[in-house]
Automatic annotation (TrEMBL):
Protein name per UniProt: Inner membrane-spanning protein YciB
Gene Ontology CC entries for this record: plasma membrane
Keyword Transmembrane recorded: yes
Compartments in which it is found: Cell inner membrane
Database matches in Pfam families: IspA
HAMAP family to which the protein is assigned, alphabetical: YciB
PANTHER family: INNER MEMBRANE-SPANNING PROTEIN YCIB (PTHR36917:SF1), INTRACELLULAR SEPTATION PROTEIN A-RELATED (PTHR36917)
Main location: membrane
Length: 204
């Protein structure tokens, strides 16, 4: 496998990244009220859909790695936690494990960024520097904002899965968290303009 990243059409990458989440939502909508007896144990539709989601996500992640030649640390951590918490939910027949997964993911990412900031570094720059060149001050500011954003998402996920129904949580997980990520980056336009490296070169 070559170390050089290969170009993949944007539509295909988006499909591999978000396809499993959308399929999880659609499958849950069809199976949420059903109970399946497997090996003498009854499983709610949510647990069965979770059991199907785990290998599907791993398959899509593997295809993405095969096509691009690389995976981000975020993708690797997400895949590992999906396997761990998805398996715990199925093994103990308890949906709470899988619902806690987004909380753990966002806390880990937020904590990692916080550690970098405490050391005067932006770990985010190492992940996105080539695609979004910024001055050092810009990276530190963006990293701080994303750190707090991740912690906010963790709190939001905890509140939703603990206070609302599974159906509400599935919709929140599928559309709410994804929309929040897009909206967050859309609101960072001023920062990107102010600290963009291209703007610095143009004014020289």
């Amino acid at each position: 496998m070559s170390d050089t990243p290969r170009h993949v059409p944007a539509w295909l990458k988006i499909g591999l990244d978000f396809g499993p989440i959308l399929l999880f939502f659609l499958a849950y909508g069809r199976m949420k009220d059903r109970v399946f007896e497997i090996g003498g144990t009854e499983y709610q539709g949510f647990i069965v859909v979770t059991a199907l989601f785990v290998p599907l996500l791993l398959l899509c992640t593997g295809i993405l790695w095969w096509l691009t030649g690389k995976l981000s640390k975020m993708q690797v951590v997400t895949a590992v936690l999906v396997v761990v918490f998805g398996s715990l939910s199925v093994w103990f027949n308890d949906e709470r494990f899988f619902k806690m997964k987004p909380t753990i993911i966002y806390v880990i990412f937020g904590a990692a960024l916080a550690i970098g900031l405490a050391r005067g570094k932006s770990y985010l720059e190492g992940l996105m520097g080539e695609a979004m060149p910024l001055k050092r001050e810009g990276w530190l500011l963006l990293t701080k904002r994303i750190m707090w954003f991740f912690f906010g998402l963790a709190v939001a996920n905890e509140l939703v899965w603990r206070l609302f129904s599974t159906e509400v949580w599935v919709s929140f997980k599928t559309f709410g968290l994804t929309a929040a990520l897009f909206l967050f980056f859309m609101t960072q336009g001023k920062l990107l303009e102010e600290y963009g490296v291209e703007e610095e070169k143009g004014s020289a």
